[in-house]
Amino acid sequence: MAIDSLATILPKWHQWSVKASELKILKDADYPFPKVTPLLLGTIIQNYRIKSKKTITGISKVDYRY
Predict the structure, then answer these.
(1) Gap between the Cα atoms of 41 and 54, Å rounded
(2) What angle do CA 56, 63, 48 make, to 5 degrees?
(3) pLDDT for 11-66, tens place per residue?
């Protein structure tokens, strides 16, 4: 689901950055907005489950003291 979100938001960010780099005020600034192409460097797999809007662990600790 997060990859799908990135697939829709990254093109929007790129379109915004192209427009921002063409603005005169940002071109003439002390630190001008650079012309860059955003890159996706990778993804992270998070292995957790959600139950009742809280994360739960896969294995619970067992107390072996009797």
Answers:
(1) 29
(2) 15
(3) 898 899 999 989 999 989 999 888 887 777 777 766 666 667 776 666 656 666 65
What would the two tokens of residue 50 be? 């959600």
In the chain, the amino acid numbered 32 is P
Q: What is the DSSP string of 5-65?
A: HHHHHHHHHHHHHHHHHH-HHHHSSSSPPP--------------EEETTEEE-SS------
8 Å CB contact between 35 and 14: no
pLDDT at 28: 92
Q: Rounded to two decimals, what is the model's pTM?
A: 0.53
Query: Are 40 and 47 within 8 A, CB to CB?
Result: no
